[in-house]
Amino acid sequence: MFIAKLLTLLAVALLTGGWTMSALVMVPAQARLPASVYMEAAQSNTAFGQQYFPVLTVSSILLLALLLLLNRRQREIRPGFLAAALGLLIVAAAITAATILPLNHRIATWSAQSPPDDWQTTRDAWGDRHRIRTTLALSAFLLLGAGLLGPKRLSGPIAARVPH
After folding, report:
1. Residues 6+ apart with CB under 8 A from 8
2. Is residue 33 a contact partner of residue 41, using CB atoms and an 8 Å limit?
3. Residue 164: how many CB atoms within 10 A of its CB?
4. What is the SS3 string spanning the chain?
5. How far is CA 141 from CA 28, 128, 155, in A?
6. If you count Cβ atoms within 10 Å of the first and of the last residue's Cβ in the chain, which end, N or C, has fewer?
7. Which residue from 80, 81, 86, 84 is spatially nearest to 64, judged by alpha carbons?
8. CA pair distance 31, 28, nearest whole angstrom
9. What is the pLDDT along the chain (164 residues), one digit of tens a residue?
10. How would you class 112 by CB atoms within 10 Å of its CB: exposed for 0-12, middle for 13-18, buried for 19 or more?
11. What's the CA gap between 71 and 102, in Å, rounded?
12. Measured between alpha carbons, how far is 67 from 2 in angstroms, rounded to an integer?
């Protein structure tokens, strides 16, 4: 169970950290760039990101699901935290597949020498969806951390009102 916890934490931390740094640094920086430079940067970032973000996303979801299953027997982690984290990562992955990847594919077809008229609208839409996805992943990471580090059971006045 220790190895499963460690690998899950590592995968979710790497995924969340990568998306968070992108949301905090890359998206605002790219908003300052002229069209041709933005397109080259976005195309390059996407090419590199497609090498490891899909692996981290799928690994994070599968490892969280495995941890949830293993926890059914050993009850070392409060299952609500794990289930909520898993659900949030699944929603983040769905947002990626349904909205971000189509924008990535669109941006990949652009030419830096002749940007489309709506390039800023597409750039802003990508940034908005990325911030939503990142917020979901960061929330999942915090729930995972709370589940791993928090008590197995509630104690004190709240525990008296919550069924075990």
Report:
1. 60, 63, 64, 66, 67, 144
2. yes
3. 5
4. CHHHHHHHHHHHHHHHHHHHHHHHHHHHHHCCCCHHHHHHHHHHHHHHHHHHHHHHHHHHHHHHHHHHHHHHHHCCCCHHHHHHHHHHHHHHHHHHHHHHHHHHHHHHCCECCECCCCHHHHHHHHHHHHHHHHHHHHHHHHHHHHHHHCCCCCCCHHHHHCCC
5. 23, 20, 23
6. C
7. 86
8. 5
9. 899 999 999 999 999 999 999 999 999 999 999 999 999 999 999 999 999 999 999 999 999 999 999 998 888 888 899 999 999 999 999 999 999 999 999 999 999 899 999 999 999 999 999 999 999 999 999 999 999 988 766 565 655 555 54
10. middle
11. 36
12. 10
pTM: 0.88
Q: Are 147 and 81 in contact (CB under 8 A)?
A: yes
The length of the chain is 164
